[in-house]
Amino acid sequence: MTFQWTAVATFLYGEIGVILVLCLPFISPLRWQKIFMFPLWSKMAVFWNKMFLTIIVLLIVLFLDAVREVRKYSSVHVNEKAANVNSSAFDHIQMKLFRSQRNLYLSGFSLFLWLVLRRTVTLLTQLAKEMASHAALETQVNDATEAAKKYMAENERLQEALSGKGDSKKKESTDATEEKLKEEVERLKAELQKTSNAFHKAKTEGAAVKKQSEGLRREYDHLMKEFEQLQQRLNKAEDKKDL
Length: 243
Hints:
Layout: H1 3-22, H2 29-36, H3 39-83, H4 87-162, H5 168-242
Helix pairs in contact: 1-4, 2-4, 3-4, 4-5
């Protein structure tokens, strides 16, 4: 292979390795978010979009060039076969056609996996944020519940302490205090309901992101099967060439 296609193949193998590491189940999205927050990644994030678009453009150019080569040698292959030329020239055309097809697969898979890699990183970041939000909302719900229970217990103790006294002035004061406590309890209940709704919403969004991540993993497994088939074809073709 020429230098450019050797670089594309190396880039493809690197993409496969990175995606495999990102899909490891025992590394949580929160751990990946901490890794992405390292100072080195923060400096690289400034150039990430430019680098992503540059690589996309290069891979598209290489892919289109490979398509052109495949069409070129496919037509030549048909013409040479119809003309019944000698076997050495026919084998040379077959070799050119095989190389152009190999380059087409390399550039196509590299382009596809580059998009998959970006999407995987985005999904991991979103899932980590949803998990952090879920934990914060759960803590807030627990705190609001404890506060509501505390105020209700104080209200009950106050009612028990003032239940035996018949002084009208004290009764009015007790009623006012009880009314304030009821308003406070209602306010806490409203806050608890609001926090609970936000918690369920975050849980639903987290489930959707997880489902999308599982779909991406299944698509990646399908792609790996196609890549293994291509690798087997490449090995068979190289063995024939050596013979």
